[in-house]
Design goal:
Length: 302
């Protein structure tokens, strides 16, 4: 678990979302969304496909159409002033055939709030080099983006988002499609950034692998269903409202988690009075939840 609990919110909110309805081409993807983001926050936004998670992030940076309500950054509408927010898109939306190097990609983050000149001075280049060094990709500056691994690509886009010194970092599915080690590396980098004073908000599908380890969770399905600590909001009723399915909740190693009921294919009924089958079903549920292989007389990590 990255945090035993949320950081104390001792400052005024950086962002206030007030009754927001937003979308694309005149069609709302989210409606009546209200929430606040504080400087201390490290937050996961959870919800099914089409819940509006990505649209909310894009609305915060002015990349979605606003039909009602508003987004305020330090009390000022984002429609009046572009806020200092870093944004990391989903990797699957990137055109990897575009010929650009790591260093050039990171420098693109310098154009936020500038005249977007086609060249960068020594100060900008030095800042880009420093952030790449801090994220462990300094030696990759001359490499083509298409030649990198998924984890390296994610760090490059983190560097691009951070190079302009944002107060908030928004990430859209930052752990999608990466291996377990890369996922953990990304989460620990984000945790370090949060402890250095950057608010972190990420959209994710990964309930147990990601969201359960963060101090604050927002459940969305077109609007905000609930928000709070995982212990407070990981409830069967909340999960049913968000996902439209029964999802049992349990605790493992002190972490509140969501269990997935295993499927027994080829059976006419899931119900059984056979105690052996009932025990197997419970063991299967535990294995799915914890990620361990369970034999009849011992547990061993996969």
């Amino acid at each position: 678990m990255l945090h035993s609990g949320p950081h104390a919110r001792v400052s005024a909110p950086l962002i206030k979302v007030l009754g927001l309805s937003a979308g694309y081409n005149g069609v709302s993807a989210i409606s009546d969304v209200s929430l606040s983001i504080y400087p201390e926050d490290f937050t996961a936004i959870l919800g099914p496909n089409g819940a509006g998670k990505s649209t909310l992030l894009k609305a915060l940076i002015g990349a979605a159409e606003i039909y009602a309500g508003d987004v305020l950054f330090e009390g000022v509408s984002i429609r009046k002033r572009r806020p200092p927010i870093g944004y990391v898109p989903q990797l699957e939306t990137i055109d990897w055939n575009f010929p650009v190097t790591v260093g050039e990609t990171v420098l693109m983050g310098m154009t936020r709030g500038s005249a977007a000149l086609p060249w960068f001075g020594s100060a900008e280049k030095a800042a880009a080099s420093e952030i790449m060094r801090r994220l462990g990709i300094g030696e990759l500056a001359g490499r083509q983006m298409s030649a990198l691994s998924g984890g390296q690509q994610q760090r490059v886009f983190l560097a691009r988002a951070l190079v302009s010194g944002p107060q908030i970092l928004l990430l859209d599915e930052p752990t999608a499609g990466v291996d377990l080690k890369t996922r953990d590396d990304v989460l620990h980098v984000l945790d370090e950034l949060n402890h250095k004073g950057i608010a972190v908000v990420m959209a994710t599908h990964e309930i147990n692998a990601v969201a359960a380890h963060l101090p604050w969770v927002i459940f969305m399905n077109k609007t905000v269903v609930a928000e709070g600590t995982p212990r407070d909001v990981f409830k069967p009723a909340t999960l049913a409202l968000t996902y439209g399915a029964e999802m049992p909740v349990t605790e493992y190693a002190g972490i509140t988690m969501v269990a997935e009921t295993p499927h027994f294919f080829g059976r006419h009924s899931h119900a059984s009075s056979d105690p052996v089958e009932a025990d197997a079903r419970q063991r299967g549920r535990t294995a799915i939840l914890t990620g361990v292989s369970i034999s009849s007389d011992r547990q061993e990590t996969k």
